[in-house]
Amino acid sequence: MSSARYMDGIWKNLVDMGINTVFGPVTWEDIEPEEGKFDFNEIEAVIASAKAYGLRLILLWFGSFKNGMSTYAPSWVKKDAIRFPRMLLQGDTGKLTNSGVLSIFHSECLEADLKAFAKLMEYLKREDRYRTVIMVQVQNEVGLLGDSRDRSQVANDIFNAPVPGEIVKFIAEDWEALLPDFQNNFPGILKVIQKYASSPDIPDWKALFGDSEATDELFMAYHYALYLEKIASEGKKIYDIPFFTNVWQKNPNADAVAGGGGTPGVYPSGGGVPEVLDIWQKFAPSLNCIAPDIYLNDYSATLAKYRHRGQPLLIPEQRRDEYGARRIWEAFGTYQALAASPFGIDTLKAVNSPFTKHYKLLDSISHFVLKAQRNPNSMVGFFFDELQEDGSDLNPPRAIRMGKYDLKISRAFVFGTPGPGAGIVIQLESERFLLVGWGFKVEFKATSPRSTLTGILRFDEKSVVDKVTGMLRTERRLNGDETRSGAWANMPNDQPDPGNIPIPITIPARTMIAEVSVFSLE
């Protein structure tokens, strides 16, 4: 998005893909190429084009940090290491090297970034009258790469000074609410922390938390959080728009660039990974959420962790293939996600993008999804991947209770080999449910101990007449073979596999929306 001319060839394709909101960067070097001289012409043209196509924007502020580096800082910042010091790394030989990353321990770096960000906020408040920009990401995947903490003299002095009382007090008082990822990093620390919670004589970081990379990461997380909080809090005073930051995830089983790493420094040390998510939530309160970028991690487990303390879930980056697309149903349906954004989506054509089918179907039933997100336990999202080569299934059936019925959600099955699937089930009324998606089936069982039979009254294929109001039209009734005579509601794939059984019950997915009414006899 550094080029409005480039984007002019992109917008229509994004609309054709069913996208309604675009994540794109605005960089410090582009808006302040010379110190004190600001240029918003390019972003002005981008915003105007997005509005013309009916799209919203989420701007990503690439200021001091992007992917753990400082590559989008202006040249006048990059070339002045005296005024804008860099953090230092310690290699295996013990020799210090320049990381190239702006220091979070020097006020000049922070103040220069803050001034530029403030100018951006002033511009948006003044010029974006139609609120095309709806959120702003503050920095991008912050954290130090190459070492677990900054080894410069100023950083060492702070590390060897007493731990701030606000951290000690927070950990002592909030221990039970902290994520297990944090607790497991510091086993046995609670008694030590409680000893110093009200003491004026707090030890330094190493003495209190131990000599470990986990301590280094905690130290960096606290100071990165303070850095972003100062920028975000000042920005909100100017323009009160939702802010967030995103997180490069830890993954010991993957060392891919931006997609993993097992130790702090292999992944950016100090970013808001689950081990220090509580610290970020506490000390950067002007960020409305800390958002995970998910490529190689367990998608479901990551979603659960980033709803910690009830914060909103936002996925700024994720896989853009079919594997990734199936998973967004769980994000929206089970974890109330605000957005699920595949990285690099502008390089895919709508006609062959796996997200086109998913986004357009979700968009058509957005009225029901948004309403259900406000009604806890009324909706569940899920996905089923392809079976393994040996026939094993890594996605077991889902069990959920909705009101007075227990639901079992499993793969759609006619004959032959069941395929992949994804979808959402929404409880509309006590005995009425909306099924959206493909490749799954739902079985219902009344929870009443007096129930002798649970059955399906109606199973109707629906289409959307008005997506704003949620008006649906019945296209056909599927009450016979399609429900196994009332045993389940089947939402088949586009091309269900009949196998080698010569009975022609192959029910292809059509609208991928159905309504089912159930009953119980007591």
From TrEMBL:
Whether Hydrolase counts among this entry's keywords is yes
Q: Glycoside hydrolase family 42 N-terminal domain: from which residue to which, for each copy? A: 13-145
The record, for Pfam families, names:
DUF5597 (PF18120), Glyco_hydro_42 (PF02449)
Record-annotated membrane-spanning stretches: none
In what residue span(s) does the DUF5597 domain sit?
355-488
Q: Which domain of life is it from?
A: Eukaryota
* Regions annotated as coiled coil: none
Which InterPro entries has this protein been placed in?
DUF5597, GH, Glyco_hydro_42_N
Keyword list (alphabetical) reads: Glycosidase, Hydrolase
Q: Any keyword Hydrolase?
A: yes
Citing just one GO molecular function, the answer is: beta-galactosidase activity
One biological process term from GO is: carbohydrate metabolic process
Q: Which GO terms describe its cellular component?
A: beta-galactosidase complex
Q: What is this protein called?
A: Glycoside hydrolase 35 catalytic domain-containing protein
Lineage, opening ranks: Eukaryota, Fungi, Dikarya, Ascomycota, Pezizomycotina
